[in-house]
Amino acid sequence: MNHYVVFVYGVCFALIGGAAFAMMWANIMSLDMKPKPVRQKHPEAPKEGEEVMYVDLTREKLEDLYND
Fold first, then answer.
1. Alpha carbon distance 68, 61 (integer Å)
2. Which has the least CB within 10 A, 9, 19, 47, 61?
3. Are the CB atoms for 46 and 52 separated by under 8 Å?
4. For residue 9, what pLDDT is reported?
5. Rounded Cα gap, residues 60 and 42, in angstroms
6. Is the pLDDT of residue 33 over 80?
């Protein structure tokens, strides 16, 4: 009886090990190692060094506007 349990354990161990290896292999092969294409900037995006208008909504600025 003991030899059968060891045999079944060995078969189950081999099946689980093989399945784990197959899953790792499939995951590695599914990775796309090609470099990603460089995305083009939006045509209205500011150029390098160009100033951008913005609204400063910090608490201090809002309190100053409210107190004036």
1. 11
2. 47
3. yes
4. 96
5. 33
6. no
